[in-house]
Amino acid sequence: MQEKDNGKTDLRRTPIFRILSIPSKEGPGFCLRRCAKRRHFRHDHVQRVFDIEPADFIASPRRFRLGTTSFIVPDHIIPNVIRLGPFFDEIELLVFESFPLDVLPSKADVKMLFSLAGDLNLTYNIHLPTDVSLSDESSRKRRAAADTLLRVMDRFNPLTPSTHTLHLEMAPNVIRDMGYPEKREGRLDNTREGLAAFLSGLSDPSCISVETLDYPFPYVESLIKEFHLSVCLDAGHQIRYGHDLLQTFETHMSRIPLIHLHGVDSSGPEKKDHKALDLLSQEEILKIVRVLENFRGVVSLEVFNLENLTRSLSVLSRYFQDIPVEVQ
User: Fold this and answer.
1) Which domains are present in the chain?
2) Prediction pTM value
3) How far apart are CA 151 and CA 148, in angstroms?
């Protein structure tokens, strides 16, 4: 694997990506066969396109930890953990709502989750509520959001989560504002104030992973660095909204403990994410594979039903070893 002058890995120059854009003199079959021996790449589609035997391709060892969400079967968190825990390394506990207060798992529930973690050799990450915003235009609402997020984190603290995923929502016209420094700085100042209020209650800000959403992530990169935050790379969002997945990964590789992985349905007038991975194009799948081959953190299949989970696991099993293909 070649290196950039700045020391970062340039994923576009690795063997599989060269075959997407640079034809070999000996033809694509030669390039892929050489690539397969070097990178242990495997996919049945390759045989149909390049007339190569499946035996030439071997799934790569899985070096990342595998997870999924706590809402795969239509039930509460604990039944999902009991069912999914034997198959996964980590469960993403979804806490999208913070009100009313009784929507949060009780202290007794957290004790049960702690016990299940020991029994199933399992860890957790927490997806923090999305019904409050640290970037709201209202200072009062930003302060309330900070208090709410801290309360949720305190509830799950006994579980020692691997990270806490945070949405920094931005206005729909944020892309237009990027060309107007005054508007851009005004929005960032609001978010900066909200983050400061929130993080003042934490000893380690890196336990917060800011998720890549619909807007270009460079918009908030200055805040990531200023507050020493981590990054949750949502690969599905990067694909749905046309962002550069590889560039985002390369830029923040050392800050990413968690990747959200899901497919995108592009068949309708509006793209829909959090679907099965088999809806992605071959080129998109290969980009994801390149990212995952260079990742050692947690990959959470962020889907919300058993069918999309099973189909996604089937896709991953073509490229990586030790992937559960049937979750009973």
Assistant:
1) 11-56 (no CATH), 65-317 (3.20.20.150)
2) 0.83
3) 5
